[in-house]
Design goal:
heterodimer; A: 115 residues; mainly beta; four-stranded antiparallel sheet; 0% helix; globular; B: 114 residues; 54% strand
C-alpha cells in the first residue's frame, strides 16, 4: 500500500539536544511538507520541498532544518535553537502536476516531547 | 494574505443531533476550500473539498459543506452525528494561484456524547 510513514510515533528528548524526525513516502510525490501542530493553533508550515535537493522555509522555520536528498525522504531536524519544540509534527506530500489542485496526503505524525 | 477563522474551538453535541462547524475565510483571490478530520494522535484525512462547480459538496460519511462566496464561508454540517464522529475538524484554504500552500484554521473539536 502506498502512503507516508513517520517514525517514531512518540519521541522524547532532553532540552538542548538536536533530534531528527523521519518522513518517508512511496507515493512517487514530488513535493513534501512539514507542519507543526499545537493545541488551539492549527497547523503551521515549517518547511517544504517541491523537488529533490531544493527546499524553502515556511512560516515558522526558525530552529528547524531539513534535507531532501531523495525523492522519498524529507527528514526534519529540530535543533537546540528551537525555543519551544514540544509539539505534534506532521509530514505531507503531493504531486506537482499541471492540474490546478493536487491533494496533500498526511502521515500519522510524530509527537515530540522535550524534557 | 489569506486567513481562515474557526470561531468555535469546541462543539459538544448529543448523538443523533445535527451539527454545524463554522468556517470563514478571507482572501483577495479565488480559493479552494477544504475540511480535514483528525482522530486522536493521528494525521489529517481529507473530508471534503470545494474546487469549483456546485457550491454544495458532500462526503461519503454524511457530512456536507456549502461554499458561500458572498459570506466567505464554508460551514460543515451533518444532520445526525454518531459517537464515531468525535474528532478535531480543520478548515483550510489554498490560493488558486502559484504555490499551493494550505492555510489552516485553528480547528474545532467535535465531542459527541450518548
Amino acid at each position: 500500500d502506498g502512503g507516508i510513514t513517520q517514525s517514531p510515533k512518540y519521541l522524547f528528548r532532553k532540552e538542548g539536544q538536536n533530534v531528527t524526525l523521519s518522513c518517508e513516502q512511496n507515493l512517487n510525490h514530488d513535493a513534501m511538507y512539514w507542519y507543526r501542530q499545537d493545541p488551539g493553533q492549527g497547523l503551521r508550515l515549517i518547511y517544504y520541498s517541491q523537488i529533490v535537493n531544493d527546499f524553502q522555509k515556511g512560516d515558522i522555520a526558525e530552529g528547524y532544518s531539513v534535507s531532501r536528498e531523495k525523492k522519498e525522504s524529507f527528514p526534519l531536524t529540530v535543533t537546540s535553537a528551537q525555543k519551544n519544540p514540544t509539539a505534534f509534527y506532521l509530514c505531507a506530500s503531493t504531486r506537482t502536476s499541471a492540474s490546478s489542485y493536487n491533494e496533500q496526503f498526511f502521515g500519522p505524525g510524530t509527537r515530540l516531547t522535550v524534557l | 494574505a489569506q486567513s481562515v477563522t474557526q470561531l468555535d474551538s469546541q462543539v459538544p453535541v448529543f448523538e443523533e443531533a445535527p451539527v454545524e462547524l463554522r468556517c470563514n475565510y478571507s482572501s483577495s483571490v479565488s480559493v479552494y476550500l477544504f475540511w480535514y478530520v483528525q482522530y486522536p494522535n493521528q494525521g489529517l484525512q481529507l473530508l471534503l473539498k470545494y474546487l469549483s462547480g456546485s457550491t454544495l459538496v458532500e462526503s461519503i460519511n454524511g457530512f456536507e459543506a456549502e461554499f458561500n462566496k458572498s459570506q466567505t464561508s464554508f460551514h460543515l454540517r451533518k444532520p445526525s452525528v454518531h459517537i464515531s464522529d468525535t474528532a478535531e475538524y480543520f478548515c483550510a484554504v489554498i490560493m488558486n494561484t502559484g504555490f499551493q500552500k494550505l492555510v489552516f484554521g485553528t480547528g474545532t473539536r467535535l465531542l459527541v456524547s450518548p
